[in-house]
Design brief:
- With about 350 residues, this protein is an all-alpha fold.
- The protein has a domain of about 60 residues.
- The protein has 22 helices and no strands.
- Helix 17 runs antiparallel to helix 18.
- The longest helix has 14 residues.
- It is elongated and about 85 Å long.
């Protein structure tokens, strides 16, 4: 008779009866438990059911080292069982173990750990705000920012500091959560400075908070536009809430401002007001700032057919800055014209 197969090989054997007979060893040996998790999603029902019975009999804490594998296998058609066990273990297990997994390098693992930690209230509002403000994961930013300022959260002595941490975050999504929470905190006036934020989302939240306090944001935006160098984003905000007849002139004047950031936001304001004039904006395709060139291009795309073809082809020449060449190509395509190949192209 041939010698018995090592358990690891038997658990991967194509014969389901051999896989099933090797499962007892997997339940007893921690090193074989990854294969036990795999067999919980086995196509053969007898193998799958026995593996699930063995996995469910393990202490919940034994599943934590297997979290990444469990979540990866949960994408399979029969992979939900082990994930459900893991989630139950995280909800009932020691808080310290859950918090350890929030630092796991695998994205799905740390996202799940954070979600359970938020559900269980294992993180303070300041810890949540700090995570939201410093992490680069958008899903985590939203989860932690919303949890940090969730209605019904018991205000602590650092409630103002929590809000300020969100308001100074680099991410617009996190700042917007902080600005919206100003209303519940009774700090409506603090939203005024965010009327000139670089993010349209944050500016919209600021206008909402002010209106909830009975304050019209339009006069404030107009006032901020009198000092455009200090508040470049105010130009975009003015376009978002302004009046065409009254405010278009201000924005066109700001299009000629020496600071690129002001010109950039002024173009955005013109688009928001729907007062773009092709002939007046076309010269900005030669702007020294690539960001301004891109903004002008976006504004001109609906008017691309009316731009002289010769003007665009000249700006597609190899000696032009890359941003200008790309703008010319985009506008030519938007107008239904094929850009000529550059010299030397084969």
């Amino acid at each position: 008779a041939s010698p018995p197969l090592p358990p690891a090989i038997a658990l991967s054997h194509p014969d389901g009866r051999i896989r099933e007979s090797a499962l007892d060893a997997a339940g007893a040996d921690p090193e074989l438990r990854p294969l036990l998790v795999v067999r919980c999603a086995d196509w053969a029902s007898p193998v799958r059911e026995k593996a699930r019975t063995l996995l469910a009999g393990l202490p919940g804490g034994d599943l934590f080292p297997l979290a990444e594998l469990i979540l990866r296998l949960s994408r399979r058609a029969r992979g939900d069982f082990a994930r459900d066990l893991l989630e139950d273990a995280l909800r009932e297990g020691p808080a310290a173990e859950v918090l350890v997994l929030t630092g796991h390098p695998d994205r799905a693992t740390y996202r799940l750990a954070y979600r359970i930690a938020v559900e269980r209230g294992l993180l303070t509002p300041m810890e949540l705000a700090t995570t939201a403000a410093t992490c680069g994961d958008v899903t985590l930013q939203d989860l932690c920012a919303e949890a940090a300022v969730r209605p019904g959260t018991t205000p602590g002595p650092d409630a103002a500091a929590v809000l300020d941490r969100l308001l100074t975050a680099r991410s617009p999504r996190v700042r917007s959560a902080g600005v919206t929470a100003l209303r519940r905190a009774g700090r409506h006036g603090d939203a005024e400075r965010f009327l000139a934020d670089r993010s349209a989302l944050v500016r919209a939240c600021a206008r909402y908070v002010l209106r909830q306090d009975g304050v019209d944001p339009l006069p404030l935006c107009r006032a901020l536009c009198t000092e455009p160098a200090a508040h470049p984003g105010a130009a975009a905000g003015l376009g978002e809430c302004g009046d065409r007849a009254a405010d278009a002139g201000t924005l066109w004047a700001l299009v000629e401002h020496p600071l690129p950031a002001v010109r950039l936001h002024a173009i955005g304001g013109l688009r928001a007001l729907d007062v773009v004039v092709r002939e007046r904006l076309t010269p900005l395709l030669d702007d020294p700032s690539p960001a301004v060139v891109r903004a002008a291009t976006r504004a001109l795309l609906p008017e691309a057919a009316g731009i002289p073809e010769r003007l665009l082809r000249e700006r597609g020449a190899p000696d032009r800055p890359r941003a200008v060449r790309v703008a010319a190509d985009r506008l030519l395509r938007a107008a239904g014209r094929q850009r000529l190949p550059e010299p030397g192209y084969r």
